[in-house]
Amino acid sequence: MALVSADSRIAELLGELHQLIKQTQEERSRSEHNLLNIQKTHERMQTENKISPYYRTKLRGLYTTAKADAEAECNILRKALDKIAEIKSLLEERRIAAKIAGIYSEAEPPRKTMRRGVLMTLLQQSAMTLPLWIGKPGEKYEVDDIDEEGKERHTLSRRRIIPLPQWKTNPETDPEALFQREQLVLALYPQTTCFYRALIHAPPQRPQDDYSVLFEDTSYADGYSPPLNVAQRYVVACRESRKK
Fold first, then answer.
1. Strand order from edge to edge, sheet including 228-230
2. How far apart are CA 210 and CA 41, in angstroms?
3. What is the pTM of this model?
4. Full pLDDT tens readout for the chain, 244 residues
């Protein structure tokens, strides 16, 4: 019954998401005329090589309208992102419910039959599809802590669980949300499913970039591996202090 309810809600959300995407395109098309006017006004100013009171007043009005258009489009996009996040959450809840009930689809076989190469691919796909966080000025980050997944393997205390990021960070707008150079973290070692202690070598420069990290490794003279790339999704805070 829960699976049917989840499917119904997902279908409803997909319909709402479709409408929001249409609204985004309509809003963008409506704002293009104003942006074109801004461009033409600047071109005329360059031709006349002066900024008259007329152009100053006109540009002020055009930029005010452009700002309002951008905020309207941004609000629609935020609503769309919320819908996507809710859909992903429902899909995960549906997967867990199906697993508890002993139902497996052909697209998602039991983990015990999953080849390692397939698992590595799924990890990379999960990192690539992590939604980008678009924060408002002064807005703080919040995370949901999921303590267990249907008691399918282990039961752990809450203090022993470190949640993975739910959003990617844009370094250009929210650099304070990133780990900084030489900060101690736990990072997923490439081609494994294990997290190891590491130092940040370089944070991402663009939303699609990975962290460059130095894993602790006693086989190297300085105790750290060469720089390796790890997706934002698989770099989390380390609660232990750095080794002296």
1. 228-230, 211-215, 195-202, 184-188, 235-237
2. 41
3. 0.52
4. 456 677 888 999 999 999 999 999 999 988 998 999 999 999 988 888 878 888 889 999 999 999 999 999 989 998 998 898 889 888 877 877 776 666 555 455 554 556 777 778 877 877 777 777 766 666 656 444 444 444 455 566 677 778 888 888 999 888 999 999 999 999 999 988 889 999 999 999 998 999 999 999 999 999 999 999 999 999 999 977 655 5
User: Considering only CA atoms, which of 102, 113, 122, 143 is closest in space to residue 3?
Assistant: 102
d(CA 54, CA 176): 41
C-beta separation of 218 from 197 below 8 A: no
Rounded Cα distance between 232 and 234, Å, is 5
Q: Are 238 and 163 in contact (CB under 8 A)?
A: no
